[in-house]
Amino acid sequence: MKIAQIVSTFPPYYGGMGNVVFQTALELTKRGHELVVFTPQYYDHKEIKPPEAEPAEAHSPQVQKQIDYVRRLNPTFQYGNAARLPQLEKELNDYDLVHFHYPFFGTANVVRRWKLANPKKPLVITYHMDPRGLGWQGLIFKAYAKYYSKKLLNVADKIIGSSFDYIESSEAAEHLRQNPKKWMELPFGVDVKRFMPRQKRFGLFERHGLDPSLPVILFVGGMDPAHYFKGIPILLETMSYLEYEGFAIQALLVGDGELREEFEMRVKSYSLSKVVKFAGQVSDKELPFYYNLADLLVLPSIHQGEAFGMVLLEAMASGVPVIASDLPGVRTVASDGGKVFQTSSSRDLKEAILGYFLSPESEQALWRKKARDMAETKYSWEYIAEKLEGVYMNLVDKP
Fold it and tell me: I need a labelling partner for 81 at 20 to 30 A (CA). Which of 73, 144, 186, 245 fits?
């Protein structure tokens, strides 16, 4: 098949949606499909290779041809991750199927108009999350979702949610209730060959001033305003409680952005500089080894801007148990590889962390094994891509 996928962000921008599309596209090209990802041109240079891309020689000849499948279009309007790409209305006519990743402000209505003009061309939509924002921006997003997103979902042939647990509490819940046959549940996946259990790299302990004899809690996520909901202040407050109670533990935060300086100031105010370290943005080549460094991954997001939690899967595949907020969608994944805690409660997070580290080593080993087993059997990208391919085939083959 000739497939177009459309997404608001894409590597090297660090974000869950773009990485989901990258991995999906890579797996589908391995299966012999011709695929192009359309995304806004946010950079000065024309072509940027996705940082996760393997060397071309690692792939079959047909995949080598598709390794440059990204097309970055110049937007006529751009604000943050919103962009309008009107040229898509002509571009999409050449494809057997179009897969749109929501939310994508500015371009969603372009895709809807294209579908209305091409009713026989299949349109798949992945509903990643409700659009979220602070203040006036949040009000605009809510109004948009109430009016425009329903129109977009109505023209789709198939709508995918990473978990119905999330969709049933989202802005799309009414659409799911009214059109249950249109929807399907398909989680996102993880590369279980890239993320896997390994020996700890002690050079990373030295690089970041960590003590190899102490347990490590890992956080991985953006620190820019678009990712304000990641809940880093909750984790830092939890670390202050653990420090006050004399529990010897350290935390490493991977990620970067404009909010990092604020978080570093909090660490100083809590007198945690010796046990809380910031790694900044790490290379995709090294990222798997940071997961191997950890004993536990924590995702303390504070609201439904976090709809799934790709980092949970990366940790689980690495054999690292997870603790995450009790949020729709997130809790579905976290329960498979660890446990959940009461959202925004640093005290409950503290108890969950202590519950893990104070349990017998045999019990901790079972947690680690379960995390890896679930990643392999339920969340591997190969398995997810096979399911998605089946969805595509059914739509394209319809008379």
Answer: 186
Which pair of structure tokens corresponds to residue 30? 């391995």
Q: Helices 232-244 and 260-269, interaxial angle, to 10°?
A: 20
Closest CA to 159 of 185, 134, 136, 140: 185
Cβ atoms within 10 Å, residue 390 = 10
Pairing relation of β-strands 2-6 and 97-102? parallel
Name all domains of the chain by residue range, CATH numbers in brackets. Answer: 2-189+380-396 (3.40.50.2000), 202-378 (3.40.50.2000)
Q: What is the pLDDT of residues 44-84, one digit of tens each?
A: 434 434 434 333 333 333 333 334 688 999 999 887 778 89
d(CA 14, CA 33): 26
* Residue range 344-382, pLDDT digits in tens: 999 999 999 999 999 999 999 999 999 999 999 999 999
Whole-prediction pTM value?
A: 0.83
The rounded distance, in Å, linking the Cα atoms of 236 and 251 is: 9
Q: Give me 69's structure tokens.
A: 């499948």
